[in-house]
Amino acid sequence: MALGASLALATVSAAADVSAAATRESLHWGADSEGGAPYIFKDPDDLGRNIGFEVDLIDALSRELGVPIKFHQYGFENLLLGLQRGDLDIALNGLEVTPERTANFRLTRPYYVYRLQLVTRADDDRIATLQDCKTLAAKVGTLGETAASRLLEQMGIEAKVYDGQMEPYRDLEVGNVDAVLLDLPIAQYCAKPNPKLKFVGAPVGKGLYAAAIRKDRTELAERIDAALQRLLESGELRRILEKWDLWNDDQRELGNAELAKGSDFLTESRRKYTFDRYFPLLCHGAWVTLLISVESMTLAMVLGLFVSLARMYGPAPLRWLAVGYVELFRGIPVLLLLYVLYYGLPTLSETLQLGFSLNFTDWTVAVLTFGLNYGAYEAEIYRGGISSIPLGQWEAAASLGMSPVKTFYRIILPQALRVIMPPVTNDFVALFKDTSLVSGIAVVELTKQYQLLSKSSQKYFEIGLITAVIYLCMSVPLSWVARRLEKRWGKG
After folding, report:
1. β-strands 212-213, 106-107: how paired?
2. Is the pLDDT of residue 293 over 90?
3. By three-state DSSP, how is residue 43 classified?
4. Which end is more exposed in the chain, N or C (fewer Cβ atoms within 10 Å of the end residue's Cβ)?
5. Burial degree of 137 (CB within 10 A; 0-12, 13-18, 19+)
6. 123: helix, coil or strand?
7. DSSP-assigned letter for residue 118
8. Could you give the residue ranges of the DSSP H alpha helices within 408-445?
9. pLDDT tens by residue, 422-468
10. Which residue, among 51, 475, 75, has the nearest Cα to 286 in the 3D structure?
11. Percent of the chain, pLDDT > 90?
12. Measured between alpha carbons, how far is residue 215 from residues 58, 86, 88, 407 in Å?
C-alpha cells in the first residue's frame, strides 16, 4: 500500500510538472490572417510567414514574457469562442474594447487607440461628412459588429455589412456603395493607396484595441498587462506602430488608466432589442430569402430544361457543351462562384479593357449564381424524367402523324413532369437554406439578419428560435407539396 501510494504520488507530481512545463514552453495566440493589413497578413516575399503590427507586438510580448507564443489561425468571428473552449490562451486581432467583452473576458490594457475614417470615391464630391450620408440616404459599407456599424446604426444611416475588410472598398470603387466607414488602420492600408478612393473629413469616434483572455487566467492577464506597460515605457510599442505608420497623437493616451475603461453603444442598444423591433427585420430578411429563392429556381428550371434537351437531342458540339455545363457547375462550390462573379468579373473587365463593365449588382449575382448551380442539377433531373418515358410513346405519336416537337410538349413532357416535380420541389427547399451563402457578398437575407441581430443583442437563442420558425414556415409547406406530388403522381 505504501509503495502504491508513493507511485501514485510520484505520477501526479510528474503530471503536474509536465503541465507546468507545457505552460512555460508556449502560449497559444489566435488571430485571423485573412483580416489583412496592417494587423496580420501573409508576407508577399514568403507566403508561409505572417507579418503585421500585431505580429510584431506578439513577438515583443514573447520576449518580455520569456515564453514562445504560437500562432493559430482562427476565424475572427470565432476567436472568443476559441478562447472559451481553451484552444487559445490569447485572442489578439484588432478586438475592440466593449462592455460586453469586458463582462465576459479579461481584457488587457489597450495597445492601440483607433478612430473611424470615412472614405468615398475620388470623383464623388457629394459626401464630406457622415451627416451627408444620412442626408443623401447613401449606402455605407462597413464590417459587422464593429464600432463603425454601431455608429451607422445609431445615426440611422443605411449600412451594407461585409465579412472582410477589402470587399467594401472594392464595392465602393465600382459603385455598389457610396462610402465606407472602417477603422483608420484599415483605411490607411486598404483605401489610401488607391487613387480611385479618398479620405473625407477628419477621423471620428474613438476606441481601443486590447487582447482578450479568459477570466480564470488572472495571472496570465496580469503578466501581459505588465509586459505591455514595459513595451509602452521603453518605447518599443511606439517603434512598432511607427514601423507600420500607425503612430499618431492619439497613442499618447495609452498611458491613461481611465482610457482603458472605454465606452460603447452596445450596452444601451441591447435593452432595445425587443420582439416588436427585431421581428420586422427578420421578416424582411425572410422576404429577401424568398425572392432570391424563387427567382433563382425559375432561372434554374429554364436553364435545366434547355441543357437537358441539348444533351439528349442536340448535335454533338451542343451535347458536349451541355455535359461541360453540368459537370462545371456541379463541381465547383457555390460560395466560390459567388466570389468569382461578384468580385472577379469587374476586375477581369478592367484588366482585359473590354470596353464594357461586368459589374453586376449583388442581387443579380446571387440569382445568377444559384440559377447556374441549380440549373445543372435540374438538367439531370429533367434528363432522367424524360428518359423514363418509354420509347413506344414517341413511336405511337409518330404513327399518328405528330411532329417530334409536338410529341414532346403534348405527350412526353406532361408525363415526365410526374417524375420531375417531386425532386425539383425538394431542390427548392434546399435552395432556401443555401441562400444563406449570399451574405458573403453582403446581401442581408434571413440568416445574415439573424447574425447581425443576435451579435448586437446577445439574444442568440431567442432570435435564433424565431428565425428557425420562420424558415420552417417557408419550407414545411413546400415539403408537404413535394410529399403530396410523390404520393399522387408516384402511383402512375
Report:
1. antiparallel
2. yes
3. strand
4. N
5. exposed
6. coil
7. E
8. 413-434
9. 888 888 888 988 998 887 776 878 888 887 677 656 677 888 899 99
10. 475
11. 47
12. 20, 12, 13, 74
Q: What is the pLDDT of residue 23?
A: 42
Q: CA-CA distance, 380 to 162, in Å (whole number)?
A: 35
Q: What mean pLDDT do residues 214-236 have?
A: 94
Length of the chain: 492
The Cα–Cα gap between 453 and 447 comes to 10
> Could you give the 3-state DSSP secondary structure of residue 186?
helix
Domains, the chain, ranges and CATH? Answer: 25-111+210-269 (3.40.190.10), 112-208 (3.40.190.10), 275-489 (1.10.3720.10)
441 closest CA partner among 335, 350, 325, 356: 335
CB 117 within 8 A of CB 183: yes
Q: How far apart are CA 162 and CA 139, in angstroms?
A: 13
Position 5: which residue type? A
Does the pLDDT value for residue 271 go beyond 50?
Answer: yes
List for the chain the helix, strand, coil content (%; round to 5). Answer: 65, 15, 25
Q: What is the mean pLDDT of residues 154-164?
A: 89
CA distances to 130, 221, 244 from 185, in Å: 19, 25, 9
How does residue 270 score in pLDDT terms, banded at 50, 70 and 90?
low
24 pLDDT above the threshold of 80: no
Instruction: For residues 174 and 198, give the distance between their C-alpha atoms in angstroms, rounded to a whole number.
Output: 14
Smallest CA-to-CA distance from 417 within 488, 477, 475 is with 488
pLDDT tens string 100-132: 888 889 999 999 999 999 999 999 999 999 999
Query: 401: alpha, beta or left, given left = phi > 0 and alpha = psi -120 to 50?
Result: left
